[in-house]
Amino acid sequence: MGNYSKEYKGCSTGYDPKAVEHDLQMISQLTHGISGRKKMTMHQAQEIYYKIKKNNICFLSETGQNFLSGLYENMTAAQMQEIDKAIQRKRQKKQNRKRLVSINRKIACVVSTVVLVSSIVCINWNLLMDLRTNYQTKKLQEKILEASPKGSGQFEAHNKNRKMSEKQADEHLTAELDTMRLEEQSEGAAEILPKFTQLYEENQDFVGWLRIPGTKIDYPVMTRNGDNDYYLDKNFHQQHDKNGLLILDYRNHIDNRTVEAPQNFIIYGHNMRTGVMFGTLKNYKDKTFCDEHMTIRFDTLYEESEYRVAAAMLSGVAYEDEDVFRYYDAIDISTEENFKAFQENVLGNAIYTTEETLAYGDTCLILSTCDNYKEDGRFVLVAKKVS
Asked: Could you give the C-alpha distances from 35 to 1, 66, 332, in angstroms and in order?
């Protein structure tokens, strides 16, 4: 057997009863199950040495030192070195695991902080976007009020005509009518309402204003030739805006003086959680709410109009091969056949109807927004023009 000396600087050189008692207890635990009559085998010595090194056991008295000396006599230096290396590898693995756990905790803290900060920024960003949307809408409303005529020249013309003789008045009126007809024929379009002139000059995609009294819905309506998606993420000034704007289907014609056939005006808008755009349109799922907010104002560039709600329904975007009612394609209702098909489908899909019944010749307004009652679901409000 080899001689493997070991110093224990903490061991006492004098007799200490407590130290002796401590060492005897440790020796008893280490040699538990080993008969004192038999000589310790090499394998037993290795097991005890492994326990001493693993648990960092230190003997405090001469009794403990004698036990160690006897232990070393049953082992070779190579065996002890191998055990020391095994213990060191085990401790190193444990340290690595602790270090890995510590790193993972730090990463988790960093990720949690980033997620929290991102959420706060996202929430505040959404609020800022909504504030910007509301501010820009208010500025547009102010421009409409400023552009609205404070007086009418018709009253002055009327007073002037009253001073004319009956014959002169008739001649003057006839001349004016002829002039108006010539102007309409030459221009081929209706005159823009004065209150919308400034907004139209700023953005010629502007086609009117939609307002539902008693609700948050009070926004400009835009259209883009051949593109119903352009204003889904843009504001009036064509800047990026997640709220987008209300969009009139590009297939609609807003000049009723040049297009006299009955049609459905279809307006799309985002169902925003914050309530902007068509975020509050879902309130119309409740018929009581509808009964209290029946009137809808949709003023185009050329005409001020009032609509009354006729029905509310749930629908969706259909696949090409599906044989279902596509309300978003039901624009032309100029023929009795087209109107009847539209009317029957509205009644068949409605979650409720009102006392406002649809009749052939009506011009209808369809408001459409997303609804999560199913994939690609839509909530749709149908109103008829009353004035």
From this structure: 21, 18, 105
Report the topology of domain 191-385: Sortase; Chain: A; (2.40.260)
For residue 130, give both structure tokens.
Answer: 């909504």
Q: Which two tokens mark 334?
A: 């100029």
Q: Where are the domains of the chain?
A: 17-75, 148-188, 191-385
CA 14, CA 105: separation in Å to the nearest integer? Answer: 49
> Cα 273 to chain center, whole Å?
8
pLDDT tens track for 51-109? 888 888 888 888 888 888 888 888 888 888 888 888 888 888 888 888 888 888 889 88
- pTM for the whole structure: 0.61
For CA atoms 216, 220, 221, 225, give the dihedral sign.
negative
CA atoms within 13 A on the CB side of 300: 19
CA distance 65 to 4: 12
Over residues 137-143, mean pLDDT: 92
Q: What is the mean pLDDT of the chain?
A: 82
